Amino acid sequence: MEKFTRITAVAAPLLRINVDTDAIIPSREMKTVGKTGLAAGLFAGWRYQASGSRVEEPGFVLNREPYRHARILLSGANFGCGSSREHAVWALHEWGIRAIIAPSYGAIFAGNCVRNGILPVVLDYAVVEELARQVEADPASRLVSVDLVDCAVTAPDGTRHPFTMAAADRDMLLEGLDGIALTLKRDDEILAFQGRDRLRRPWIYL
Amino acid sequence: MARTIIDKLWDEHLVADLGNGASLLYIDRVFLHERTGSVALKELAAANRRVRNPEQVFCTMDHIVDTLPGRGDATRMPGGGEFITQTRAAARAAGITLFDIGDDRQGIVHVVSPEQGIALPGVTLVCPDSHTCTLGGIGALAWGIGSTEAEHALATKTLAVRKPRSMRIDFRGRLAPGVTAKDMILALIGAHGASGGVGYAIEFAGEAVRALPVEARLTLCNMGVEFGAWTVIIAPDEAVFDYVRGRPYAPQGQALDQAIASWRALHSDAGARFDRELTLDCSTLAPQVTWGTSPQHETGIDGAVPDPALEADANRRQAMERALAYMGLEPGTRLAGLPIQGAFIGSCTNSRLSDLRAAAKVLEGHKVAQGVRAVCVPGSSQVKLAAEREGLDRIFREAGFEWRESGCSMCFYAGGESFGFEERVVSSTNRNFENRQGPRTRTHLASPVTVAASAIAGRLTDARHLAG
Ligand code: SF4
């Protein structure tokens, strides 16, 4: 898996609450069994003028310069709520997003982010708004830094906003770990558990 | 120390404390469907990994499969055929049990899993689908995951999970006639917001919950994810044990007695501490309906569209304004009486036999209003067969409803069927997001009873006021 340590990049403000995964990647844009070919469908319902079309909606933030090159997304509470579709994260990643800054996230979405090299930073909405305000003054030069080593976001004016992240998720991102390989190292423990459990709850074992 | 029901299930499934804040939990059952399970199986095979215990893994065709009578592999969803054939091949190669098109066990994953006795009290069950929390209704610790996590669960029989904070919600009082579990959960989300449960594992408790039949508990828990919860659960009781009895994959005979004896311990101990406790008075609850594009945009059917100008929080206000523009509504408009063009009964929220019975009771002897397209999609092939044995299909058809094969159908839009551009639909589903049921389709979430009453009237209707 791809690692995340730190980035300094254009940040795009999408200051809406409850941005759901249907909005991030509409179901009609998930056309094949796979993780790729999704960037064009990212935010399709907002990015394009009509359903299924590819005529851009000029007002949508990711259609404007320099936000087309954004690597960071600023958003409202409960970002990525709704469907479990990991395609939402794959689409964001393929389009170029590497970090999101929002007050809270849909639980499954946040889990999917850390398994795909995207950092979901939790900061108060007042901070998100302030970052957006600074960025909007001159988005091409007023970049935002996100640093997972130090666990801090640095605003364009240099203000530092520390954030916290669960150790398990942080390790996963910093080291780009393969969760399955890691767990399989504990094979003995899993088998031992199964052995005990089979006696305790025989009805579980079909 | 007094433990919550979640504590008990956590402890019982703990394989290892990973030392970084996460627990390695044993996963009893994995359920997949052709929309997201297909990717998990494919990637797992590509990585040369095997499903560890295929006998504990199940898969169904629900999301993409067509629901029109006489269906086969062909589907209206662009690229959908590929999902169906690839899932079938991958399920076969992995040696897991597939409820395929034409199998009378096929249906929506969260309807099928308790129905078949795959989800049981006290099991850990995961599925790459957000509404897996539905199964908390029978006392399973069940939660939605992504495809990558599904691969992990398939390959290792475990998941690394951080334990969420705990919350208990006390649903007080008794529901009035015509008010349902759907109205309880919509009211909860309305009161505390779509992110009210973020970061929590939540126990639903209280008099109103205890009084709910098992299928209604599944409805209540279904929308736990719409509340933002990691998952939700209801302590299993005698009603659940009766429900489980005789189901194909449930324990039988002595094994069942042994299981029930252990399930009786699955409740929060007196004095167990929760990080947060909420209450909701159910005795005064009216049928609920949504007016916007988040489940939190809801009110009683006797209410009106709120005025965004009165919302102090700027973010919420903007979301309300966007929602009203999308929904084509003005502040102050009464919800009851709003003309509709579509009515949908189906989805993992409200498509079980009891839902269809309740709707049929309203529909019997009536006709759907002119200009309303009404569709009923049973939640599983078993539900459909049982409904037909009782003649419910006849009531739906005579009222003017389409009677479909089971599946997710128009609960979500993937380029196939929809009710149409800017059509107003009253729907027994769980999501009213923008474009969820079709390009610019306007969804009003409600209970099956409200959907049925509204279909007859041609406008959003308070089922309590229907004459006889
Ligand atoms: S019925 Fe709707 S919400 Fe339920 S699993 Fe299917 S698509 Fe998802």
Structure description:
The complex is a heterodimer of chains A (206) and B (468). Chain A has 206 residues and is of the alpha/beta class. Chain A has two domains: 6-175, Aconitase, domain 4; 178-206, no CATH class. Chain A is built from eight helices and eight strands; from the N terminus they run ββααβαβαβαβββααα. Chain A has a four-stranded antiparallel β-sheet. A four-stranded parallel β-sheet of chain A has the order 2-3-4-5. Chain B is of the alpha/beta class and 468 residues long. Among the domains of chain B are: 21-161, Aconitase, domain 3; 288-465, Aconitase, domain 3 (2-Layer Sandwich), CATH 3.30.499.10. Chain B has 15 helices and 19 strands. In chain B, the strands form five sheets. In chain B, strands 5-4-3-6-7 form a five-stranded parallel β-sheet, sandwiched between helices. A five-stranded parallel β-sheet of chain B has the order 17-16-15-18-19. In chain B, a hairpin with a 4-residue loop joins β1 and β2. In chain B, α2 (37-46) packs across α5 (147-156). The mean pLDDT of chain B is 97. The chains are: A alpha/beta (206), B alpha/beta (468). The interface between A and B is large, with 61 and 81 residues. Bound molecules: iron/sulfur cluster. Residues 62-63, 108-109, 129, 131, 347-348, 408, 411-412, 429-430 of chain B line the site of iron/sulfur cluster.
- The CATH topology assignment of the domain at 288-465 in chain B is Aconitase, domain 3
Helix content of chain B: 25-40%
Number of strands of chain A: 8
Structural class of chain B: alpha/beta
Low-pLDDT ranges of chain A: none
Furnish the topology, listing elements before pairings.
The complex is a heterodimer of chains A (206) and B (468).
Chain A: E1 6-9, E2 11-14, H1 21-24, H2 44-47, E3 72-75, H3 87-95, E4 99-102, H4 107-114, E5 119-122, H5 125-137, E6 144-147, E7 152-154, E8 160-162, H6 167-175, H7 179-184, H8 187-200
Parallel strand pairs in A: 2-3, 3-4, 4-5
Antiparallel strand pairs in A: 1-6, 6-7, 7-8
Chain B: H1 5-12, E1 14-17, E2 22-26, E3 29-33, H2 37-46, E4 57-60, H3 80-94, E5 97-99, H4 109-115, E6 124-127, E7 141-144, H5 147-156, E8 158-162, E9 165-172, H6 181-192, E10 200-205, H7 207-210, H8 214-222, E11 231-233, H9 238-244, H10 253-263, E12 276-281, E13 288-290, E14 298-300, H11 314-327, E15 342-345, H12 353-363, E16 373-376, H13 381-390, H14 392-399, E17 401-403, E18 424-427, E19 442-445, H15 448-457
Parallel strand pairs in B: 3-4, 3-6, 4-5, 6-7, 9-10, 9-12, 10-11, 15-16, 15-18, 16-17, 18-19
Antiparallel strand pairs in B: 1-2, 2-8, 13-14
Residues 62-63, 108-109, 129, 131, 347-348, 408, 411-412, 429-430 of chain B line the site of iron/sulfur cluster.
